[in-house]
Specification:
Layout lengths: L9 H11 L30 E5 L6 H5 L6 E5 H22 L8
Antiparallel strand pairs: 1-2
């Protein structure tokens, strides 16, 4: 697979990719996989497919994610990104559910 930047912000993408060594930065179970056989970090790189540059907080809206500073961006492989996003969204929904006011009693 080629190491080709996306069309939108190639300088930002390249900066984050260089900082990560062109490897997924998922670690310690962010995606649900402990990556225990690989030192607690995903080893997927550009040889395994396209890599995504996205914020660590995957619950942000697209507009908010576009405004995240480059220092807060990380490299994700597609598999870790989708799994981590599902886990973060589920956690956020559970927190919102727990913080919601109790419904009024029917009687």
């Amino acid at each position: 697979m080629t190491h080709r930047p996306p069309l939108g912000a190639p300088a930002v993408w390249q900066t984050v990719m260089d900082r990560a060594g062109a490897h997924c930065q998922c670690e310690g179970g962010l995606c649900g996989n402990q990556h225990s056989k690989t030192g607690m970090r995903c080893i997927n790189g550009t040889a395994h497919g396209r890599l995504i540059v996205a914020p660590a907080d995957l619950t942000l809206s697209p507009v908010a994610a576009a405004a995240v500073p480059v220092e807060q961006l990380r490299v994700w492989c597609a598999d870790c990104h989708s799994k981590a996003q599902r886990r973060q969204l589920a956690s956020k929904q559970e927190q919102e559910r727990q913080q919601a006011d109790e419904p009024l009693a029917l009687f």
